[in-house]
Amino acid sequence: MLRVVADIGNSRLKWARLGADGMLGASVSLPLDDPGAWAVVWDDWHHDEPEGSAWAVSTVNPPLARRLEEFLNERRPQCVRWFLTAAEVPVDKDVEGADTGGSDRAFAVLAASRLLGTGKPALVVSCGTAITVERITAAGVWQGGAIAMGLGLCARALHAFTAQLPLVSPDATAPSWGRSTEPSLEAGVFWGTVGAVRELIARQRTDLSADPLVVWTGGDAALLAPAVEGPSARVVPDLVLQGLVHAAFDPSHDL
Predict the structure, then answer these.
(1) 12 a known binding residue?
(2) 173: exposed, middle or buried (Cβ count in 10 Å: 0-12, 13-18, 19+)
(3) What is the pLDDT of residues 221-238, one digit of tens each?
(4) Binding site annotation covers 103?
(5) Cα–Cα distance between 96 and 135 in angstroms, integer?
(6) Are residues 99 and 78 located together in one domain of the fold?
(7) Do 144 and 167 fall within a single domain?
(8) What angle do helix axes 35-46 and 62-75 make, rounded to 10 degrees?
(9) Which uninterrupted H or E stretch holds 75?
């Protein structure tokens, strides 16, 4: 049977298949508003799968989750398991409001904990529409973390809520300062975000039991991680999808 994990975010929808060995394959990033594009991938993945498919879905986007649910109901996979909140994710927690918190944060923590093991504290920095910095104790307990504005959201907000500022898409080539509006924006958005993340990481280090391991994930991780930590930064793509695999398709859990 085909096994699929799906991550519904605020700016992208990602699917990935598990191989026969249970390992996660390459993910596919799909448009949020184009079920026709979803159908192309569905047909490609299912054309030689007579046993159908089992799905596990994490979502922080209720309207899109309803659209995907309709899409799946039309195609009748064997089973679908939905993870709507952090409370449903099998990770040790010392947080408040897990029944309303995002499942994506908890899945990133679960995957990082499996990847790194216990014995040393860790931080998970997820760089998407929002940037989150998650704390994991040496015993593997998720303590919550910090949520900040993501790189693209910062740029779009400055463009949308001002009369004359243009939309920019800065990266590590952004200057330190600019003589005109656009390079000034690029400097402020990119290096301001880098500084904010660096400060958030530094503040977690002050009260953890040891210097934490740091794992980066998310669409902007490849841009921000080297700028914050240098070339040795550990970037793990698709950490949320990895967490879904552990939660939904681990032999110790029934789907």
Answers:
(1) yes
(2) exposed
(3) 999 999 999 999 999 999
(4) yes
(5) 14
(6) no
(7) yes
(8) 40
(9) helix 62-75
DSSP state of 88: G
Token pair, residue 127, equals 């760089």
In a domain, residue 133? The reply is yes
Average pLDDT over all residues of the chain = 94
Q: Domains in the chain: how many in total?
A: 2
Name the pTM for this structure: 0.92
Q: Is 93 inside a domain boundary?
A: yes
Are residues 60 and 130 located together in one domain of the fold? no
Percentage of the chain exceeding pLDDT 90: 88
- What kind and span of H or E run contains 56? strand 53-59
Whether 104 has a binding-site annotation, put simply, is: yes
Q: Which residue has the tokens 């002050």?
A: 206
Size of the chain in residues: 255
- The answer to whether 13 is annotated as binding is yes
- For residues 48-71, average pLDDT: 94
User: Tokens for 112?
Assistant: 């990082």
Q: The domain containing residue 69 runs over which residues?
A: 2-84
What pLDDT, on the 0 to 100 scale, is given for residue 251?
61
Would you name the residues annotated as active-site residues?
104
- pLDDT bin (cut points 50, 70, 90) of residue 250 is confident
